[in-house]
Design goal:
The chain has five domains: 89 residues, Alpha-Beta Plaits (2-Layer Sandwich); 86 residues, DHBP synthase, CATH 3.90.870; 171 residues, DHBP synthase, CATH 3.90.870.40; 127 residues, Nucleotidyltransferase, domain 5 (2-Layer Sandwich); 215 residues, Nucleotidyltransferase, domain 5 (2-Layer Sandwich). The protein has 770 residues and is an alpha/beta fold. 32% of the residues lie in helices and 21% in strands. It contains 24 helices and 31 strands. The strands form five sheets. Strands 6, 7, 8, 9, 10, 11, 12, 13, 14, 15 and 16 form an eleven-stranded mixed beta sheet that branches. The protein has a seven-stranded mixed beta sheet with strand order 28-29-25-24-23-30-31, with helices on both faces.
Length: 770
Amino acid sequence: MTRRKAKITITGRVQGVGFRPFIYRMAVANNLNGYVINLGDAGVEIIVEGSDKDIKNFLKDVEQNSPEVSEIEDINIFYSNYSGKYNEFVIDKSKKTGNLVSGIYPPDISICSECLKDMNNKSSRWYEYPFTACAWCGPRFTSVISLPYDRERTHMSDFPMCPYCEKDYYNPIDRRFDAQGITCSICGPVMSLYDSSAKKIEVEDVFEETARYIKDGSIIAVKGIGGVHIASLANRDDVLEELRRRKDRKKQPYALMSPDLKCINLYATFSEIEEKYLTSWRKPIVLLKKKHRLISELVAPGLDTVGVMLPYTGIQSMIFKKLDEPALIMTSGNKRGLPMAITNEAAFKELKGIADYFLLHDRDIINRSDDSVLRIIDEQPAFIRRSRGYVPDPIKIPTTKGISIALGAELRNSAAIATDDKVFMTQYLGDINTLENLEFEKNAIQNMIDLLNITCNPDVIACDLHPDYMTSQYGGVISQEMDIPLIKSQHHHAHITSVMAEHNIVDEEIIGIALDGAGYGQDGQIWGGEVLKTSYKSFERLGQLEYLPMPGGDLCAYYPYRMLIAGLTNSLSDEEIRDITKNHINHVLPHGEIELELILRQSRGKNIIKTSSFGRVLDSISALIGLTYYRSYEGEPAMRLEAFASELSDINIKFNTVISKKNKKYYLNTSNMLKYLINNKNTLKKEDIAAFGQKYLAEGISLMALKISEDTGINKFALSGGVFVNEFITKFIIMQIEDQKNTVLRNVFVPPGDGGTALGQSITALHHVI
């Protein structure tokens, strides 16, 4: 019998998922001696000695039976002579390496079914203990201070194990063997309940008392694993009205949490793939179609979808155990313009006046992480927010050399760090338009740098072309401080290159369709409805929506009727516009006729800012039929328009798509379409106008893109931009293009909106400097 020694290194998601205990069990089962250790680069190193047959069987077991949450990326094996040095197989102490990480520890993992069983077992020391976790589940990204992933480098360092936990921790047969988050009611963190003045409420069961407060209509701040949530009843209008008043959020939709699928089915419908995402270990918020009004209409006013998630912590499971409710509001605990609170002190300070009571614990949250949000479109995910459950999973890209730091855009932002063939996106950062949120971004980037073990300066900094974004200005500062290049990506170019990177496009040009609300153009105007011939290094704008004047700049985004009036000036005289709008202008514009005259005058001025934004035209149609006169949250007019639209098969509006070509560029006319709709709005159903407006724009952009395909011979298309979370528009464009035997790619690993632009910025910047 030939005996040998094998040194095995495995990279991928193999730390923090019970991988070393798994390796231990497989090695012992195959009669092998040696060790397994975590490496500082997020991989594992294994030494085994034994017969050739046993080593082969061991490797087969590793590949076929690894833990569900693990993900093996690469296995390298080096054989040498048998030494006889090892008498048993052990899990050895982790070691640091000087290498850049090739993988990374996992995102936060929702509580597993076995831990939930322990919480319901009255004879268990985990009975109703909300921090129950094992090697297969629990906080990861939000808990880690540094790698390797060991207890002393996590938020559990302040909680020494009791003798019982220590026994489980060192027992190879126990599922808590080597589980860094192991804790119990004897030695672990504790929950406490406080009133609005931060005074502790002494009660025997904080969850029972919390449930009582919720039933009475109170609003509760609940500290979880990635931050503080605001929880309340979801079926009482008075509670929702009060919550909206306190949070100063008049219409923005709130996420719901339900205890199980059966409860979700009472108020929303879900497909097989939506169920798969809802019940996955990542537990994101999934947008689902509403049913009847079991929940208050004030949860998501004017929308036909609602964001829903299942409990992913023992804390949330305990609340529902004590509370007989099918759903609760579970929204981020923050004041407008501030990131979500993660400390008890911040919760008391920032949520004073919002929460009636505070259910908090004494364990640190190391890394803030909002809930991820996605929508299933055409059987694929379209992320609205990529954060908890997904970060810090890397995104594989075509191999590049060097390191880039990309700062993203402004709204719904995430940053990114690219190394070799991977991009590591930060968690969701929110809108980077305050100093507090910019500081959050700086900290998130630094934390990712530390975890990736990057000790040298990056080769390039990447940011958006817009000169007024705080992220762009910060990019200039760090570029100067580090004396490294700064590459400014045009916003829509970054959108398209993010898709190219996701789909491993290497050295080819594609046609990009970039649709969103706003992006700073190279001509100084505001783009947003573009067809680009794109490579990583450059692009050519070959199609666009007609430029419409945008008087007051962002005021047109906040007051969509301004945008409508401005757009009509391309096709109607001032007198015609006054005549059409005279009966209701005083209630659609804050300053009535005075503002109307100012809009008309500015729209015809020589130096007026213009926009080709797809989103602004959708906003105009929303205002035209009276859905939205003031945008209270990002994307509201377009979202309400989508929800309000009738089925296309029911509409009978005849207005042909108008596309022109000038100087080798195609233009989709939108002002004549707006003119037609406003002139005929009294004879058409509003639902039909909503549907037709979306169809006109989707069909027009598709036809332009197909013409450009014919002109260039390119038959691969990339779709990106915030509009591509609109289900109708996305599916319609895909159908139009694929019907002509073309390939359509879109974002599935990062948001198509601005939260994904840092990915595109990263790879574009590296192509410019390396």
